[in-house]
Amino acid sequence: MIHRFKDGKLHVYIRQDTYKGKLKSENWVGRASVGGKQRIISSGTTDLEKAREILEKWYDEQVELANNPSQKEDNYLNENNGENTLEVENNLENSTTSKESSNLEPIQNISSQTNVNEKINNNNENQVSNPVEATKTAEPASSSFASKIQNKLKFNLNFSLFKKKNEASGSNKKKESPLVNFKKLFGEKISQASFASEEIAGIDISNESIKVAQLSKKDDKWILEKISLRLLDKAKINENILEAKDYVADELKLAMANAKISTSNVAISIPVTSAIIRVVTSPLMSDEELQKAIETDSLWENLVQLTDNLNEYSIFHQIISRNSKANTMEILFVASKLSDVNAYSSIIKKAGLNPVIMDVKCFTIKNAFDNSLSIENKANNALLEVGKDDNYLIIVHDNIPIITDIFLRPNEKEALSNYKIDSLLTETDSVIRRYCMQLKQALNDYENKYQVKINSIKVISNLNNVEDLISAFKKNLINTGLQVFNPLAEVLVPSYNQEKTNLNNKSIYTSVLGLAYRKLDVFGYYKFVTAVKNINLLPNREAVKKQNKMKFLSGFAVKGMVGGIAALYIFLMVLSFFQIRSNNEKLKNFDNVQMEFDKINKENIQVTKKFNDMTKTLKLGSVVNSNQIESYRALAQITRSVPQRVQFTELDYNGKDTVIIGGKAFSDQDIINFVSNLNEKDLIAQASLQAMNAVEGQSANNQKGFKILCKLKLNS
Question: For 435, what's the count of Cα atoms within 13 Å in the CB-facing half-sphere?
């Protein structure tokens, strides 16, 4: 229902699209074009007369501020961060929702339509150049103006503090050391290694069907290993898939079994209408400063004015770019209500699976598009989803997502799904014309802002009549090419999956393939790639990352140890090869060397024997002094008493009258003969056998060792 006030310059309406079967907003919303820029506000009331009074007063304030730019308030309102009024250069988002009254989920980038049968005034089908959620508040502009200024002062103060702090730190910044550069390079390489080693299946759940898929990559070519499509019973879903969790979980199990997917790690998506997507400009900060600001909730409170508590959202962010000259940086902000995130996660867990990634559907479609290598000039392409649930246009410019929601009422969505090219329904034709008018406006805004021409629109749809719709769209978009996007064009499909993918409309697999391309960003690989490929809204994503990081590192360590052992074995094998080769060269002269050795060894034995004999003789002679005549004569008699088969090896003389003779003999009889010979000498008083034993050793030849005690006859 649309009313016009202030000579048609102020449009007042109630949002007509629904979420979970309920109106997204029940409050009257005002929209006006002031100073060439479109502004939106919620009245905060369902009473039209009260809303008119509030909104007309708000409109007068906006006109006064626009006509008098010297006013201080205008400086605050033109920073594109107003709490109650959102302003974006060259058209802006033009939908709004009241959280306090309707308690609904945040909706992202919703365009509104004034009247089906009237011309659209003041460019009210808009595209957001920095996509943000429409401003949501239940307070009247008149009553909240003071708090608005107070919040803006707070934001500007924080901005200045951040800026001064950053300038101070920037002035002392030193060039990165080689160690830091090495860490970054190592981090990138190990991230790529972990990225390539993961195994994740994609799951796309809609009100019509469940689609699962798993891809692998070989030589830069993607292969569709496993895929399955399972239609859902609409009677059991009742237009809200989250209310039929048990049924959907059972169907998901059957889809996974049909596809024969064994991995439990899966990537899932949530609808665009369940997410808030913004690109916000922040003071330039280091990663540490940014993390501290996020931990204290000061950053998002200043940059993203959400009507609900931040704790009720699962938030993902990533820095898109830094501008040191302007001392600012662009941050991609994506958020979804925890209730929605947990609801979708619970379906996956009921099916016995482990959700590791939760993306937004628009980005999964973009991911599938980016992996279609054959598409030239990707920067000149836009993606359009047409369906009963979501209708939006997405363009990604320098990693900045620009998403324009195509506003359709439920009856208009139904009319589109039933359209036939030969249909005579003029009402459906008017819906198509208005649809295309919104597309044309979004394309013009983008092309005027970035001076980039969009030549082609790739259409993704779950409607059976998508070809008929494209034909109708082409009549209204003459200079823009439209065609159904085929996500399997650059994917190798094995023969066993040909039948499953042999569909007229292959675009229904776009989202699930975009999810199948995803990998869990364990080591920050996507920091080196692009932000829009890294969305993960799971609240426990850091714990999942840590778990997978430890798993990868442990596997990496095992692989490293195995590799080290293998390298050691290879080294030893190579060393052994060269050693054996060297030994073989030396063994060629072995016979000659052996002969020379035997000859020298024989000579050595003879010389050694002579040396030992001489040593023993010298030792024996040193025992007896040459000036003792009797001792010398006794020694001579002992020497003459030795039989031929006896050899004595030691002689121990006490210097007086006792000599102990040690030696070896070939038999006992030889020893007895030696004793007898000694007793016959006149200087030997008595000779007796003191000890006898067998000689050990290979050269013993059964010889006997002995010790003989001799008493000498010496004159006193």
Answer: 27
Residues 6 or more apart whose CB falls under 8 angstroms from that of 60 comprise none
Q: How far is CA 333 from CA 132, 153, 262, 525, 530, in A?
A: 9, 23, 34, 19, 14
At residue 708, the 3 state secondary structure works out as: strand
- Cβ neighbours of 300 (radius 10 Å): 19
The 10s digit of each residue's pLDDT in 334-382 is: 999 999 999 999 999 999 998 988 999 999 998 899 887 676 667 788 9
Record the tokens describing residue 485, joined without a space: 């996007």
**How far is CA 18 from its chain centroid?**
37
Distance CA 289, CA 294 (A): 9
**Structure-token pair, residue 667:** 């038999």
Q: How many Cβ atoms from other residues are within 10 Å of residue 284's Cβ?
A: 21
CA-based torsion, 250, 254, 259, 262: positive or negative: positive
Distance CA 404, CA 383 (A): 11
Q: Which of 290, 209, 239 is nearest to 508 (CA)?
A: 209
Rounded Cα–Cα distance for residues 242 and 328 (Å): 40
C-beta separation of 201 from 255 below 8 A: no
pTM higher than 0.70: no
Lowest mean pLDDT among 197-211, 450-464, 498-512, 614-628: 614-628
Domains of the chain: 2-145 (no CATH), 373-484 (3.30.420.40), 623-712 (3.30.70.60)
Please report, rounded to a whole number, the percentage of residues in the chain having pLDDT higher than 70.
71
Q: Where are the alpha helices (DSSP H) in 529-679?
A: 541-587, 590-621, 629-640, 668-679
Residue 102 has pLDDT above 90, yes or no: no
Mean pLDDT score across all residues of the chain: 75
Q: Is the pLDDT of residue 134 over 70?
A: no
d(CA 621, CA 635): 9
Which of 196-205, 281-290, 361-370 shows the lowest per-residue confidence on average (mean pLDDT)?
Answer: 196-205
Q: Quote the tokens at residue 255.
A: 């889809």
Q: Structure tokens of 518?
A: 């995803």
Report the first-to-last Cα separation within the chain, whole angstroms.
155
C-alpha 483/C-alpha 458 separation (Å) is: 5
Tokens 């003779």 label which residue? 661
Contact by Cβ (8 Å): 244, 347: no
In this predicted model, what pLDDT tens digit does every residue of 641-660 receive, in sequence order? 888 888 878 888 877 788 88
Contacts (Cβ under 8 Å, ≥6 apart) of 307: 98, 99, 100, 136, 137, 138
Specify the DSSP class assigned to residue 205: E
